[in-house]
């Protein structure tokens, strides 16, 4: 099978951008990624575009060039960007194409996401009676996890404070002001045990990645980053998942666990080989749980690891070095490509003030979202 | 009921038995693999069989996890509150016997009172009052003393 290289990354900063459309942000991200790859849009043979709010992300072609290429639109919940990336990679792995783009863009209203619960296979009354909230699910999951594995409220606050601290070092982040652990704990309780500052916010932004057949990567860049694994998994019977009015007593692992195992197998590496980690931190609790679900530690070890600073930029397992979702917010279609953007810069050594020391060689990115879908990508130098 | 003229209606039919002194949630049980869901759905979540029958669920169980809903949900929430009148409510996952864990509103919203593992019992409570005075009822779980069913 053909290997895939990432030769360009581009990002439209995440935040709130007034009247600027998601399409225009997507075009900016594509132009930046193409410039990074020393390439023109006319060189691109195919593309996948992901969005929640935009029905047809391929409308971005009217901003970057109507070249007639196949441009396929995808939506897969919070795993949308991992899906666009995997499909674009598959197009190259299969030998059908040599050069492609994965792009994601979104422009959300402030506040928690909502929709029609029936479209998530939940009962029609599920929203009416006040259960149709992702924030409530994440709170219930971490509350049980804290009970089972001895995680403290202070650890939740440490994770959030790290997110804001890293965001302050990232010129593309939405939240660039440090927030102390005390402020995190004292902020309004939205869904116990999660306070206002422990949650990410839906916002606006775009990100794009240029991929090619690894055999020709050096035509475009001296620092290709190789996409070693892309794995998507949906929930199994027995997993405790978002937007469900019930859960089975016979428990199974979360979809992230299966996506993670599949990705490690594809890449031929294990969690101890990973130098930089990007995890879905919809909230501070999710980052803690996802550390274990992705194999970086045993359940409960987060309490000590986080207190020791293990997940800081200078620690042995840096997590969400660009501030993650907590500091960047979540434009759904773009979020996972923002993770890849950060990993590529870390592996190239161009991450500026937030550069992980010691020349990191392996990056890992995980997404998780409704209605129980996970995506994992692994990149290496 | 506050007086004899107040009409109480469930928020949806076929979710719980009502009116009833001891209301029960109506789940679904797969006749092929015995998996239980709440509410009843048209086919089985485990094996995909379309042979699913209505199955009353135990009225008591233990609190598996919980949270509080501290902000007014967006539509389609229909509790009738405003930003000014909204009061946080509890939500939990209650394990009913060894059959299924059901998500429901809790009658208590104080995390100091709620404890994982505590015994809970099904109840039916007013959810909102419509302009004509009709009380729309929902199921909820309340902490109780005693033992499981």
Write a concise synopsis of the structure shown.
Chain A has a single domain, classed as Thiolase/Chalcone synthase (Peroxisomal Thiolase, Chain A, domain 1). Chain A contains eleven helices and twelve strands.
Keywords:
heterodimer; A: 381 residues; alpha/beta; Peroxisomal Thiolase, Chain A, domain 1; two-stranded antiparallel ribbon; 11 helices; 12 strands; globular; B: 149 residues; mainly beta; five-stranded mixed barrel; three-stranded antiparallel β-sheet
Structure characterization notes:
- The complex is a heterodimer of chains A (381) and B (149).
- Chain A has 381 residues and is α/β, with parallel strands linked by helices.
- Chain A has one domain: Peroxisomal Thiolase, Chain A, domain 1 (3-Layer(aba) Sandwich), CATH 3.40.47.
- Helix content of chain A is 32%, strand content 20%.
- In chain A, the strands form 2 sheets. In chain A, strands 3-2-4-7-1-8-12-11-10 form a 9-stranded mixed beta sheet. In chain A, strands 5-6 form a two-stranded antiparallel sheet.
- In chain A, strand 2 (46-50), helix 2 (61-64) and strand 3 (71-74) form a beta-alpha-beta unit.
- In chain A, helix 3 packs across helix 11, helix 4 (134-149) crosses helix 8 (284-293) and helix 5 packs across helix 8.
- The two termini of chain A are 19 Å apart.
- Chain B has 149 residues and is mainly β.
- Chain B has a domain at 59-149.
- Helices cover 0% and strands 40% of the residues of chain B.
- Chain B has no helices and 9 strands.
- Chain B has a 5-stranded mixed barrel with strand order 5-6-7-9-8.
- In chain B, strand 2 (26-30) and strand 3 form a beta hairpin.
- The relative contact order of chain B is 0.22.
- The mean pLDDT of chain B is 94.
- Classes of the chains: A alpha/beta (381), B mainly beta (149).
- Chain A binds chain B through residues 111-112, 114, 116-117, 123-125, 127-133, 136, 139-141, 143-144, 147, 188-194, 237, 240, 244-249, and chain B through 11-12, 15, 27, 35, 37-39, 45-46, 64-71, 73-79, 88-89, 91-93, 95, 98-103, 105, 111, 116, 127, 138.
